[in-house]
Amino acid sequence: MNVENYINETLKDHKLHITLIDPDEQTPAEAVEIAKQAQKAKTDAILVGGSITDQEELDLTVKALKENIDLPVILFPGNISGVSKYADALLFMSMLNSTNPYWITGAQALAAPTVKKIGIETIPMGYLIIEPGGTVGWVGDAKPIPRKKSDLALAYAMAAEYLGMRVVYLEAGSGAEKHIPPEFVMKVKKLTNLIVIVGGGIRTAEDAKQMKDAGADIIITGTVVEESSDAYTKIKELTDAIH
Ligand code: 1GP
């Protein structure tokens, strides 16, 4: 399966909802249970990653997911430990507004030989941290883009496109109190040809619909499922709003 083709084909029909699973937050068996509920609720793929990832835990989780569900499993690495040979694809990402070159090209170079060896599909992606930025902003030494400065995000997204990236991820940070302002999405969608992913603080159907109406192609949610006792109903609420 080519995951980027799957995304582009799906986009001809509807926008995507992707369920994020942090392998450090539950056992592999529990991750499979969440993913099964998400699949039943028509999520379009499973994203696996976190800011702190134990490689063994990641491998066990991804392997269990691949054995038990039919959706693409995509890696969202928080560091070089975020690569697993069991996944279908890897978001090969650069944190464009980090102040530390390690997160822009350093980790990527250190991981590249492993990526080559396992032969996993890579999807080149610019990763942009918008205020508040959360744990990932702190870990990634980001200079988060102020919520009133959507033009700065647009400039970075344009640069990502000129650098050959095909995807941009506008990130408010996991568990953010508020998701990114719709204006950010509108501008980036209007003035680039990138696939626009949004995440961080999206909790309700209304949040998801706002992001979709602004032009987001892929809406990621993670925390909402960790906080809910009924993953199926919560994800169904989101996918109904997005599809
Ligand atoms: C985190 O954008 C994702 O990288 C998801 O955020 O956990 O707030 O849904 P939430």
TrEMBL record:
Pathway: Membrane lipid metabolism; glycerophospholipid metabolism. GO terms for molecular function: imidazoleglycerol-phosphate synthase activity; magnesium ion binding; phosphoglycerol geranylgeranyltransferase activity. One of its GO terms (cellular component) is cytoplasm. Its cofactor is Mg(2+). It comes from the Archaea. Sn-glycerol 1-phosphate binds at Y169, L170, E171, A172, G173, S174, G175, G200, G201, G222, T223. Mg(2+) binds at D22, S51. The keyword Calcium does not apply. InterPro entries: GGGP/HepGP_synthase_sf (IPR038597), GGGP_HepGP_synthase (IPR008205), GGGP_synth (IPR010946), IGPS_HisA/HisF (IPR050064). Keywords: Cytoplasm, Lipid biosynthesis, Lipid metabolism, Magnesium, Metal-binding, Phospholipid biosynthesis, Phospholipid metabolism, Transferase. It catalyses: sn-glycerol 1-phosphate + (2E,6E,10E)-geranylgeranyl diphosphate = sn-3-O-(geranylgeranyl)glycerol 1-phosphate + diphosphate. GO terms for biological process: glycerophospholipid biosynthetic process. Its EC number is 2.5.1.41. It is found in: Cytoplasm. Its main location: cytoplasm. Coiled coil: none annotated. Prenyltransferase that catalyzes the transfer of the geranylgeranyl moiety of geranylgeranyl diphosphate (GGPP) to the C3 hydroxyl of sn-glycerol-1-phosphate (G1P). This reaction is the first ether-bond-formation step in the biosynthesis of archaeal membrane lipids. PANTHER family: GERANYLGERANYLGLYCERYL PHOSPHATE SYNTHASE, IMIDAZOLE GLYCEROL PHOSPHATE SYNTHASE SUBUNIT HISF/H IGP SYNTHASE SUBUNIT HISF/H. HAMAP family: GGGP_HepGP_synthase. Belongs to the GGGP/HepGP synthase family. Group II subfamily. NCBIfam families: GGGP, GGGP-family, PRK04169.1-2. This is Geranylgeranylglyceryl phosphate synthase. It comes from Methanosphaera cuniculi.
